């Protein structure tokens, strides 16, 4: 198998946003549980089933606000992903477990966590997948800071990380668009592709900003890329299909078996 269907989605802890005023009227849902949350996550899981590998941002790893449901495991189970991983970046004990998540259909050979520069609470997950010819594909899931100073340092960190892998995918909520000098500098330094100003993901009800990106190293071919109109968060999901260069293949088989239980790849 040479192709891989990717999706990146900031799910806002399962909170359904329809307009800017929801940030105020739904603010309590960031602290307290609500039955709509699981309904929303189930609908999100139906979308995720179409993909081989999913990077999640703003998922809760199990706290009061999520009714102590690990949302990564919930989405893995209902999306029929056999392997999942969570990175808790901001641990507020029983009140919130702010996390990045990875869901995939092929077991990674290794997973590493990185704390990003700046104030605590931002991280990156690096999952390595074995290819033929002794090569490795690295998939990096990120959620960057809101402030441009911290974000510039984080992009510098990611540029250094990208230089360690000839085959790499970097995906997530970068909290900046294609007009960001820091983001453009990182793309230029790493020769990555995929920065598309037309792929607008935020806000989901009237997308005007391209805050979410899937970037790939130059040897990888982009077969397709699009934003999916699936407004169940304040962000829209972004998808990409990539293809390995000949003669590379993934070692192992990607499974699409819908009855597999979710398990941790850690």
Task: Explain the overall architecture.
- The protein is an alpha+beta fold.
- It has one domain (3-251): 4-Layer Sandwich (Deoxyribonuclease I, Chain A).
- 19% of the residues lie in helices and 32% in strands.
- The chain has 5 helices and 13 strands.
- Strands 11-12-1-2-4-3-13 form a 7-stranded mixed sheet, with helices on one face. Strands 5-6-7-8-10-9 form a 6-stranded mixed sheet.
- The model is unreliable at 258-266 (pLDDT under 50).
Brief descriptors of the model:
single chain, 266 residues, alpha+beta, Deoxyribonuclease I, Chain A, six-stranded mixed beta sheet, 5 helices, globular
Structure summary, number of beta strands: 13
Euclidean distance between termini CA atoms: 24 Å
Characterize the largest beta sheet: strand count, sense, and whether it forms a barrel: 7 strands, mixed
Helix content: 10-25%
Q: What is the molecular shape?
A: globular
The SSE order reads: EHHEHEEEEEHEHEEEEE
Instruction: Assign the structural class, choosing from mainly alpha, mainly beta, alpha/beta, alpha+beta, or little secondary structure.
Output: alpha+beta
Strand content range: 25-35%
Taking Cα atoms only, what radius of gyration do you get, to the nearest Å? 17 Å
- CATH superfamily, by name, is Endonuclease/exonuclease/phosphatase
Number of domains: 1
The CATH architecture classification is 4-Layer Sandwich
Protein name: Endonuclease
Organism: Thiorhodococcus minor
Keywords: Endonuclease, Hydrolase, Nuclease
GO molecular function: endonuclease activity
């Amino acid at each position: 198998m040479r192709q891989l269907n990717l999706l990146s989605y900031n799910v806002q802890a399962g909170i359904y946003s329809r307009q800017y005023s929801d940030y105020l009227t739904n603010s309590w849902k960031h602290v307290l549980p609500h039955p709509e949350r699981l309904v929303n996550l189930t609908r999100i899981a139906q979308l995720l089933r179409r993909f081989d590998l999913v990077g999640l941002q703003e998922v809760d790893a199990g706290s009061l606000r999520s009714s102590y449901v690990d949302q990564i495991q919930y989405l893995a189970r209902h999306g029929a992903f056999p392997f999942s991983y969570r990175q808790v970046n901001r641990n507020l004990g029983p009140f919130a477990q702010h996390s990045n998540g990875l869901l995939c259909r092929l077991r990674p050979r290794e997973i590493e966590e990185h704390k990003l520069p700046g104030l605590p609470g931002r991280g990156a997950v690096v999952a390595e997948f074995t290819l033929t010819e002794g090569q490795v594909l690295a998939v990096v899931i990120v959620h960057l800071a809101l402030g441009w100073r911290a974000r510039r340092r984080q992009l510098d960190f990611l540029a250094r990380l990208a230089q360690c892998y000839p085959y790499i995918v970097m995906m997530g909520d970068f909290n900046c668009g294609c007009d960001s000098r820091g983001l453009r500098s990182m793309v230029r330094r790493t020769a990555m592709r995929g920065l598309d100003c037309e792929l607008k993901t935020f806000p989901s009800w009237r997308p005007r900003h391209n805050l979410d990106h899937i970037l790939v190293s130059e040897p990888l071919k982009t077969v397709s890329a699009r934003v999916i109109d699936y407004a169940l968060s304040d962000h829209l999901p972004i998808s990409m299909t990539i293809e390995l260069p000949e003669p590379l293949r993934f070692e192992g088989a990607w499974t699409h078996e819908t009855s597999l239980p979710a398990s941790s790849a850690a």
